[in-house]
Description:
By secondary structure, the chain is an alpha+beta fold. About 70% of the residues lie in helices and about 10% in strands.
Amino acid sequence: MIEKDFVTEGLKRTRIDEYLEKELDRAGYGGMEIQVTPLGTMVVVYAERPGMVIGRGGKTVRAITQNLKNNYELENPQVEVKEVDIPELNPKIMAHKISAMLQRGMHFRRVAYSALRRIMGAGAQGVEVTISGKIRGSRSACAKFTDGYIKKCGEPSIKYVKQGFATAPLKPGVLGISVRIMPPDVVLPDKVDIIQPKVEEPVATETAEAVEAPVEEITEGSVEILEEITEEAAEEAAEVPVEEPVKDDLKTKATEAKEAVEEKTEEVVEKATEAKEAVEEKAEEVKEKASKTKAKATKAKKAAEEKTEEVVEKATEVKESAEEKATEVKAKATKAKKAAEEKTEEVVEKATEVKDKATEAKEAVEEKAEEVKEKASKTKAKATKAKKAAEEKTEEVVEKATEVKESAEEKATEVKAKATKAKKAAEEKTEEVVEKATEVKDKATEAKEAVEEKTEEVVEKATEVKEAVEEKAEEVKEKASEAKKKASDKVAEVTKKASEIKEKVEKS
């Protein structure tokens, strides 16, 4: 059935996860993903320190792939190691860190609140840390610490909230640590963003109106000129005196004046038509120029839109790169902050130890001073000398105490430096020991195979020798039986001869 397949696949994944968590505990194991491809099975391992997962020369990765292939029935497994960008946002890593701090003997409240500060400082929306077990006394209890906003029910709590679990074996019992983190990039389904409408300014219409405006002005001006010319011609025609035809000369003059007026009107009309044609040509030229400028404006608008799109794309790319760099810088800052906090905690612990030693030395000095005072009270006769001696001794003791304190501080710094060196050397030695163990294991397997081959050869030779010995033993038995028969025959002959000699001797 399909349900059984899902169950078996889930069990296989949990077994692989438990195996990797056990093997890569010191490397800061942060989870894994399994992707089945036609070429094989891709196993992506997330770790805080990927160098320890890979090992020197890739030995650790090869050993893990071999174990996954042999013990967990994965077809052609390929292990890929990825570094966790922000370890504070990985609940498994933080649960293991809380477990390690509890095993060192720190108080659970201090550990929990420091973990909350680190996780919220990394940018998480919310976090919940639960520590359950014998944390206060012989009776088990549960302490829950929360900060920020975190979903606890529904699909968002399953889909968006990350969970991690770890155990801390202590003397009273085993503590369980559960960490739930809601990452900063989670967008909940009930979030609503109101988008404001964009108002675009009409660029092309304004340019077209600006281009068409002079055309209208030109046409209106040409019409006004034509009207003025026609009005002048009408006034000149009206100014010509028209009298009653008294004489023929006046008629001729009137006809001549009339003809002159008609000629002038014709000339004026021709000039007006020429001016009108010129104005129309100019208007057509202006229209062509306006159409060209309009086309140029549309092209400029398109180019501007393309440039704006390119600028927006570049701005988004720059913004994304800036955000990536900011996240990297933030991750490095969190790592540096974490290392500084760990170092400060170590320094504070060592300072408390030095302070305790100084207080013990001070108490011892005070006890010695009290003894000196008692002796001084008993020896009243030599009070002045004893007082001077006591003062001198107390000064010497104070100087010695200061020297002891300084030497203790120097020794503490030396011990700290030696501890760091020893820690580094221990890590290097552990890596070397692990590598040597793997080499020894490989050599042991090779030697085992060689021994098995040699034992098989020796067994074959032993069987051959046994068969040859048995054949020789049979031959020896046969020869011994023959020799025995010959010896018995000879003994019979000798006995016969002895009996004959005995008989002869008795007869003689």
